[in-house]
Amino acid sequence: MERPRASVVKVIFDGKTMKYIDLHLHSTYSDGAYSPREVVRMAAQAGFAAAAVCDHDNVDGTAEAEAAGSECGIEILSGVELSVQWGEYYDIHLLGYGFDPSDPELCRSLEEFRTFRKTRNEQVVERVNRRLRQEKRDPIEFFRVQALAGGTFGRPHIAMALLEKGYVRTNEEAFRQYLVPCNVPKRYFPIKEAIDLVHRAGGIAVLAHPPFIHPERPVLEGLLDAFLPLGLDGVEAWNNGADNEDIDWMITQARRRGLLVTGGTDFHGLEGESLTIGGSRGNLRVPVACMEEIRRALKKLHQRIS
């Protein structure tokens, strides 16, 4: 029996049929609300030709996403989102695409990162509970936060536990009242180390949502120039921090530097989130032509390292 095919969103542009993709989705393996299978099915139902689940420092959901993609008739690109640091800039996000998710070095590095994160989260929960006790409230239980996450978890899952207890009404309130004042500093990959890690696993490295790094364009231009010799392959031009003018500007900057362009929503599916798969501010209809660029870049990389 022929497998079901996803319906494809189509528009006519210059006489050609265009399809769309979303290459920045999150699942329960990091801080998303839906499993990889559910996320992929949602992307297929939205009519996308391709998608990538880019969980934070975790590739454990890749096989599930790929299996769902085969069932739904949507192309799945392996993806991951790494937290990196360069100079005075902390928590820059780097997207890896098209790598081998079973690469031993990649898996070992991510496991070490998650082990540190678990210890950090335990410390954050303890600090939150210290504040709750001061307020004469019952503490939240660490195992409950783990259960809410389902996989790798972070501060959004601690916020879920606070919401569940009725201590806050929104995620924003949870962060403002508890998670920010009770925070424990994160660990970051040096950006060169992260880019090399992705490359050695057979993937390409793309700078995620540049407007969230810095709002000023001259600063972003300087960062692109600094990251280019470090091996950066592309830029997430279509992103949820950009309007149409920002997207056009970022595409121009990427082309001037020989960088490829990608796009995605950074969808998490959390309660109160305004993002939807394939939609947000500006124009997040990411053309399927981006996939062709990625394939060419991956082929070039594999030829170089083989």
Structure description:
By secondary structure, this protein is an alpha/beta fold. Helix 9 links the parallel strand 10 (234-238) and strand 11 (260-263). It is globular, with a radius of gyration of 20 Å. It starts with 10 loop residues before the first strand and ends with a helix. The chain has ten helices and twelve strands. Helix 4 (142-149) crosses helix 5 (155-165). It folds into two domains: 11-101 and 190-305, Metal-dependent hydrolases (TIM Barrel, Alpha-Beta Barrel); 110-179, DNA polymerase, domain 1. The longest helix is centred in the middle third of the chain and has 31 residues, at 104-134. Residues 1-17 have low confidence and may be disordered.
- In helices, the fraction of residues equals 40-55%
Number of alpha- plus pi-helical segments: 10
* Main pleated sheet: 6 strands, mixed
Uncertain regions spanning at least 5 consecutive residues: 1-17
Relative strand content = 15-25%
Shape descriptor:
globular
Proper CATH architecture of the largest domain:
Alpha-Beta Barrel
Overall pLDDT confidence? 89
Sequence of strands across the biggest β-sheet:
8-6-7-9-10-11
| Rg result | 20 Å
* Span of the ends, CA to CA: 38 Å
- H/E series, N to C? EEEHEHEEEHHHHEHEHEHEEH
Predict the CATH topology of the largest domain.
TIM Barrel
Structural class: alpha/beta
Got a strand count?
12
